[in-house]
Amino acid sequence: MTLTFYYDSLGAMLDVVEATPHQLDIIDGQVFTRYIPRGATGSTSTSTRFYGRHLFQMLEDCRAMLPFAEAISDIETMAHELTVCLPPPRSVKRRRVQAEAGDHPDTDRMLRGDLAHAWVTTRKLLHDDPTALTTIILPVAYASITSEASIYWNMAATLALAWLLEDSGRRTCLVSLEYHTLSGVSPTTEFSSVTILKAHEAPWSLQEAIVTTDRAYLRRLIFRLQDCLPEPPDLGYGYVPSRGALQEHIAWCSQEYDWRHVITGAHPQHDDISERSSALRWIERQIKSLEAVAL
Questions:
Q1: Res. 167: pLDDT tops 80
Q2: Is the model's pTM score more than 0.70?
Q3: Of 235 and 159, the one with more pLDDT
Q4: For residue 153, which of 75, 172, 258, 279 is within the disulfide window of CB 3.0 to 4.6 Å?
Q5: Residue 100 has pLDDT above 90, yes or no
Q6: Are 227 and 43 contacting, i.e. CB atoms less than 8 angstroms apart?
Q7: Residue closest to 78 by CA, chosen among 153, 22, 183
Q8: Distance of alpha carbon 110 from the chain centroid
């Protein structure tokens, strides 16, 4: 069984988190929101060493966006530093060519005596396609031992690749995917949470997707969604499936949500990225792969 949740924007997901059980406290004349512990209680833990900024603070920062300006600068610098250029997006169109020799006869032309155009061949022609759509997945589920640096640079690498794809003429959709198997639940249950951080039709911007570079995106916001799941609760936040299982789930999502030309971004648990130089190497490998298939 799979529990699936779909949010068509970051704002929609934040609205759901903010609506989870809470109460308003008044301290020195100011009103503060206090979220009531639920489930495994990680999202409301007072510890910041592992979970990062507090839940209420992460919600405020996601609304304001200003705290993530440095991350946007890092991504922009990486994208501009790479000198490689992707080929323009292409589409395949078929055209019927008529000549004196070919694959199939055109009986009408033969009967009219037009033998110079009596045979038909269908040829595949490549055309530049400025409307090519690409869906980029940001896998935001990772093991508890994953370092803050690994989280940051994996997400930054993926977003820098998206920047380059946009520069090459593609229209990208940026998708946050949190997919894992719940622990302590029988029968086996999977949790899948999809959030659209930039739609294909939206102008290029990292204003929403940039929040994935912060560990509190998973450990506060998404953990809060899990903490408030209906019965049975997940008391351990689950475990991350293998890369193969992730790809199978992405294939299912592609059918379910009509995703086009899907690219899976760097994964903090499966890709060896922990600093800027390894992030750049990962981007270069992805570009070579894309050049080979002329996406």
A1: yes
A2: yes
A3: 159
A4: 279
A5: no
A6: yes
A7: 153
A8: 55
Amino acid, single-letter form, for residue 68:
F
Compute the distance between CA of residue 142 and CA of residue 218 in angstroms, rounded to an integer. Answer: 9
Task: Enumerate the domain spans of the chain.
Answer: 2-85+130-293, 90-128
Reading across the β-sheet that carries 119-128, which strands appear in turn?
A: 90-99, 119-128, 104-105
Mean pLDDT for 82-99 is: 63
